[in-house]
Fold this sequence. Notes:
The protein has 12 helices and 15 strands. By secondary structure, the chain is α+β, with helices and mostly antiparallel strands.
Amino acid sequence: MFEVYITKAAKYLPNEAVSNEEMEAYLGLINDTASKARRIILRNNKITSRYYAVDKEGKSTHSNAELTKNAILPLFDENFTPQDLEVLSCGTSTPDIFLPSHAAMVHGLLKNKSVELNSSTGVCCAGMNSLKFGFLSIKSGNSKNAICTGSEKVSTWLNAQKYNHEADNLKSLEEQPIIAFKKDFLRWMLSDGAGAFLLENKPRGPISLKIEWMEAFSYAYELETCMYAGGDKLENGEIKGWSDYSPEQWLNESVFSIKQDVKLLDEFILSKGAQSMKDAMDKNNIKSEDITYFIPHVSSNFFVEGLKKGLNEKGIGMSDDKWFMNLSRVGNVGSASIYLALEELMGSGNLKKRDKILLSVPESGRFSFAYAYLTVC
Length: 377
């Protein structure tokens, strides 16, 4: 078995930062009406700026694959060129197309040489699953290096045009033309961007992070779906997929929109997160005092105090000085968020040799959680 190191990190955030007051200029007004939920949601999530890969007309400036390629390019230099790459592993919740895979589309833009590809799907854990594929490939000796990515291009999914037909349909049924909160909620939570890590079997450069271990947990065996797209939830909790709806229903019911069962989210995301983190730490025999920096992907600042309480109750709480987050500045970028936070910490100049970093990523899709433990060397 070989050691695995993150030797370089990079990111790509498209265009200019978008303030809270500018959001509807980019995403548009559903039924020409300002959202009543927007200000409440923003007050709770405390995100003050984010990035969109669209202009104010709602037209794309970048595809997801282009965002990912742009995050990857800074990883190359005279010591590691595109011709040296062996594995490309890409995770996303929002691929540009169903097929080919997201990784194949990114590889097509890199135009370097034949490499092994992996595409990880899901929600926020897609980025960590992408990282784990590269980690295991190098650790096993299958490869000497890998580039792993997390990226999202969600802005076009959230554009008002995607919901207007449903609003018109509600009017024709003589109902209030207000899109359900489970859809409107996420319009003010999610944004675009990409992050990338270079993994190698030897440390390199001024800072390398040794991946000590990675762990993942799923509670889908006991919990209903919470966050979903391309279908709708039935009264019995099951998901009916898009291919079982008529094309007319796709529009009338916004079947392809991203939705979240907020009641389920509140009930389980923190409790299962605290339990899975304790299980990961117990399995690998680490304690809170061993950790120098704790980087949690948190979708909204609303959950921070609850997470702290849950960790304290499990005996794994950490002092505030250990926490590192950049949610308020870059937004919730799903599978890319953990990449963006670690890239910022690596570039901060604050890391010292032998510092320990714990990455924590929850996914509300059907409640999955992923962790990684790193040592600065």
